[in-house]
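Dear all,

This email documents one entry for the complex benchmark we are building for the journal club exercise. For each entry we list the sequence lines for every component of the assembly. Then comes the predicted three-dimensional structure of the complex as a token string, followed by one or two observations. Please use this as the template for your own entries, and keep the labels exactly as they appear.
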Amino acid sequence: MSDAFVSLQDLTLAYGDTVAVPSLNLDIREGELIALLGPSGCGKTTTMRAIAGLMAVQSGRIEIAGRDVTRVPANKRGIGLVFQSYALFPHLTAFENAAFGLRLNRTAQADLVRRTTEALDTVGLGHLSSRRPAEMSGGQQQRLALARSLVMQPKVLLLDEPLSNLDARLRLEMRTELQRLQRETGITMVFVTHDQSEALALADRVVLMRDGVIEQIGTADALYNTPESAFAADFMGFENIFEIENATLKAASGRLPLGFSTDAPCLGWRPGDVHLGDGPFEARVISVAFAGRHREYVLASQLGPIRVDVDIAAPAHGVDAPVRFALPQATARPLRVS
Amino acid sequence: MTSRWPIWLILGLTLTFLIGPFLIIILAGMSAGNSLAFPPDGLSLKWYAKVFTIESFRASFGLSLFLAVFGTLAALIIGIPAAYALNRYDIPGAETIKTAVAAPIIVPGIIVGLALLRYLVVPLDVTIFMALFVAHTALVLPYAVRVVSSSLQNLRSDMEEAAVLLGCTRLQAFTKVVLPNIKGGVLAAFILGFVTSFNEVPVSLFLSGPGVRTMPIDMLSYMEITYDPSVAALSALLAFLCVAIVFTAEKFLGFSRYV
């Protein structure tokens, strides 16, 4: 891709003899907000550290803005990283934390004060510039870490689990903040997360990773609605996934007729897409939970446990009640086995 | 309430044994008589005054002070990088090295002194002063490594990575971020090393020679010749000095957090 701003080519990363990421290829456009999504140990953090220069590359190359930076040391790459723990300097005030990089490259005092003040104002910490990190809340600390990186006008801003340490209200606030910053500065951002809802809410494109390999890349809409593999579907909330062979469902208890024909080796249904009430399959209610607009059922069936969400207006079934359900062809998502 | 008396008894005995000798020395030094005795033979401060007139005490105090200050500084110059390396890098045998570093605390001082005398002073013809300096540096080193290590353990390593990404070299990250955040530990290590070096007897005993004696050794030899209360007076003064240093450190640094 010619318009790639950050380009990872056949990137192989290893810890000693253990290969964490084998031959990864990824192109990121300028000004894009990318999420690296996956369970812990999938290589997302390792990949991010390699982009930052904190992790030695075993083979392959990393290009940023058309320049090969594979062997460029971390302090010369011009990349910002907001650590999950924020990694603020406890002995310095908020202002000095934010001004750290500018002091280091001997920026003129007037310029330093202006840019630092600007960055602190951008993240809404202008009034706290004389506080030390220990005197700030978690949300403020994170915004300070963000300001400290932004001051340096990095080519790429990396964020490690930017929302995971915040409570629900702050998380929404920070999400809005990051989107605003990205819109205003046009900076290329890559963030790492294990939370699919964060990735979908924030990113222009989501890179779903598994065991060091990219499972699927796409927009939030594409990943949510059209996952390609069973792994991706499972990550995106398709809780009922079955392997298919000759129009039969493979289940723990044997094979059951699917009721329609398909070429897909695997089919998935979201809890909301399973039809409860009538249908070919028998089940018993194991648990039922109130979830506002709907009820969440877990059923024990010949197919194993089935999760179903039913509109709150429908009549409720109690625990142990016998029920019937159908897996409709219309809502089935064809998947690759993985 | 009555069932509490054994606790008070144990507490009382403990304090008696800890503080008692100290009180006895202070009082023995205040004797008006001519020999070291307790209870003191009348009360006067003349022995406290006499301490300052004894020439050899001045010389040995100077030597002890020099060894305590510069031996500890040397130990820190070796110990801080050592502690850093042991904490931050995946060094094979790091645990073994940590144990080895602690050896001078565990091995009896007599053995260390004898070994240094037999294999450093005698064959290499090192001056007694140099031998004392090396010995005191080595004795203080374990404290430097251990105390600095414990404050390094509390410092997250991603802070250094953050500094590097903002443009620091590894060395700058150390001086601008690590050092300012462990300075409390470094000061604590210095004070602990100073007190340890100043009070050290067994190793210095082997390495002392004519005219070159540390303060405690000089006091021992003075007592062999002159059994007057000036030694008690000097002991009391030195104890006050050490207590004052540690008390000040505790007050301003929270010294006991690091030790």
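Observations: The first strand of chain A starts at residue 4 and ends at 15. The first helix of chain A runs from residue 44 to 52.
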